[in-house]
Amino acid sequence: AQQRRTLIAGNWKMNGSLSANSGLLGDLLAASIESASEVLVCVPSVYLAQCDALLAKTSIAFGAQDVSAHQSGAYTGEVSPAMLADFSCKYVIVGHSERRAYHHESNELVAQKSLQALRSNICPIVCVGETLEQREAGKTNEVVVTQLQAVMDVLDDGALARIVVAYEPVWAIGTGKTATPEMAQEVHAVLRKTLAERSAFAAEKVRILYGGSMKPDNAKELLVMPDIDGGLIGGAALKAVDFLAIIAAA
Ligand code: PEP
């Protein structure tokens, strides 16, 4: 984690309203975060304009939670990477397990979304992670490497070095169950090695976040692990005190 700037990213999921967001962002801004870490909130796309208005020229970056794999055209209901870029959006989560599960997103679709986001200068946060069943069957490494490899296959080395990866064990998301620091580190090291087999430079650059019930009381022990470069935080990102405590722990 030494050479890489820690990234603390909130995933608001489908929560918020104009008034709740302005309250939460107001509380975060009022805390005038003094952190060496990069702080990010990933919001429903309809609130990007609000974030652009409230967060421009502040130390909090904002991103989206999904993006189309296409740049424009007849894709009703989708939002293109260029549209995200229009609102100064810096990041987009791709392949979150909820989208893989409820919207049947394949590894190949996640790879295309990552590629198209990068073309609009938006950094994809590529989520990977195993289900409980896969972990119990001893397939964790195979699953996450296959998910990452699909994205690596469509990117050149320069683009690869710009992505962020988030390891989110599906059984830990929203369940209150967290991977132990050792369990998470083991998978993060496998992901780093997978990147290194392709490009030593990318392996050094790419930040690998941990996600899955990260909270103020477990953030520090996770974030000190050598290959954990930050966190992707769901539930605890919706309360300013909790999110700020995680930022302080980083
Ligand atoms: C997530 O959905 O990305 C997540 C990590 O959620 P939670 O922190 O609530 O487990």
TrEMBL record:
The active site is at H96 (electrophile), E168 (proton acceptor). InterPro entries: Aldolase_TIM, TIM_sf, TrioseP_Isoase_bac/euk, Triosephosphate_isomerase, Triosephosphate_isomerase_AS. CDD domains: TIM. Keywords: Cytoplasm, Gluconeogenesis, Glycolysis, Isomerase. It comes from the Bacteria. Involved in the gluconeogenesis. Catalyzes stereospecifically the conversion of dihydroxyacetone phosphate (DHAP) to D-glyceraldehyde-3-phosphate (G3P). Belongs to the triosephosphate isomerase family. This is Triosephosphate isomerase. It comes from Undibacterium flavidum. The gene is tpiA.
